[in-house]
Structures are given as structure tokens and as C-alpha cells.
């Protein structure tokens, strides 16, 4: 069933509605799963609006698969998710990688290809630096007059 879900777009954050559409789950179910699965912690901003990252969407798809396709109970799915994360932690430790923020790197959807997002952070930082310099120049001109 997971194969019929749409592909995950290459963007940094997703709203609860977008995640619901991407995972085939209603928003109230996602909010409930947040209470049941401690690994699922979307960022909350203004007015407690939830913003999910790519790894959390993959995690939700895995939870959905465990519950709806494989027939796990909530408790069983919670235990299985913990096993997956522990196995990934151990794998990272044995390869010498830090195990902090482990959920961000866990491939919870083994059939789901990892989406790579082109990094334009350096370009944006350069643009910000140019804008800052231009604004400083304008400020200097305004203060002289």
C-alpha cells in the first residue's frame, strides 16, 4: 500500500495537512501518534503549528505501514520503532558516527529512495552578505544627509 503514496517533495518542512496527504493519514491521527510515539517530534511554531521534516514523514509512513499493513498494535508498533532506532544507533556507533539526532538519518522506509536536496546554503549566505553590505551603504548615505 505504501507504493501508492505520493513521493515526498524536496522541501525542508511540511505542514500537518501536507503530511496527512503524503502519508494517507488524517491530521487528528498524526496528533494522536505524536502522543504514542515519542520519536515523532515535529517542530512547533506560532500557535503550536506543526512543521514536519523529511525524516519524520518517513517515520510516519513506517508507523502507518506497521499499524495498517502489518497489523501491529500501537504498543507493538512503538516497540518495533524503538528496535529500528536502537539498531540504527548501534550501527552508527560501530561505524564511529555520533548518535545524536538519530531520527534524522534513519531510513525507516527501506523501499523509499532517499531524496537529496541541492544545497544552496553557501549561495544564500553570499546573497545575504551582499544585501547586508548594500544596506549598510544605504544607511551610511542616509546618515550623511
Question: Your description of this structure?
Answer:
This protein has 5 helices and 3 strands. It has a 3-stranded antiparallel β-sheet with strand order 1-3-2. The chain is mostly helical. It has a single domain, classed as Multidrug-efflux Transporter Regulator, Chain: A, Domain 2 (Orthogonal Bundle). The radius of gyration is 20 Å and the shape is elongated. Helix content is 54%, strand content 6%. Helix 3 crosses helix 4.
Summarize the structure.
Mean pLDDT is 82; it is low at 107-119.
Overall geometric form: elongated
CATH third-level topology: Multidrug-efflux Transporter Regulator, Chain: A, Domain 2
What is the CATH top level name?
Answer: Mainly Alpha
**Helix segment tally:** 5
Instruction: Give the tally of β-strands.
Output: 3
Report the mean per-residue pLDDT as an integer: 82
Largest sheet strand order: 1-3-2
For the sheet with most strands, the description reads:
3 strands, antiparallel
Enumerate the spans where pLDDT stays under 50 for 5 or more consecutive residues: 107-119
What is the domain total for the residues? 1
What is the radius of gyration? 20 Å
What class, by secondary structure content?
mainly alpha
Topology order in helix (H) and strand (E) letters: EHHEEHHH
Strand content: 5-15%
Distance between the termini: 68 Å
Amino acid at each position: 500500500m505504501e507504493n501508492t503514496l505520493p513521493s515526498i517533495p524536496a522541501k525542508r518542512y511540511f505542514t500537518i495537512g501536507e503530511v496527512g496527504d503524503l502519508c494517507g493519514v488524517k491530521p487528528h491521527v498524526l496528533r494522536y501518534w505524536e502522543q504514542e510515539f515519542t520519536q515523532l517530534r515535529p517542530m512547533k511554531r506560532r500557535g503550536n503549528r506543526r512543521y514536519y521534516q523529511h525524516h519524520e514523514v518517513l517515520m510516519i509512513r513506517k508507523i502507518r505501514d506497521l499499524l495498517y499493513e502489518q497489523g501491529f498494535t500501537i504498543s507493538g508498533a512503538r516497540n518495533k520503532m524503538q528496535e529500528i532506532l536502537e539498531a540504527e544507533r548501534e550501527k552508527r556507533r560501530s561505524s564511529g558516527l555520533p548518535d545524536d539526532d538519530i531520527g534524522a538519518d534513519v531510513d525507516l522506509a527501506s523501499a523509499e529512495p532517499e531524496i537529496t536536496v541541492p544545497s544552496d546554503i553557501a549561495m544564500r549566505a553570499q546573497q545575504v552578505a551582499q544585501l547586508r553590505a548594500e544596506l549598510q551603504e544605504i544607511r551610511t548615505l542616509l546618515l550623511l544627509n
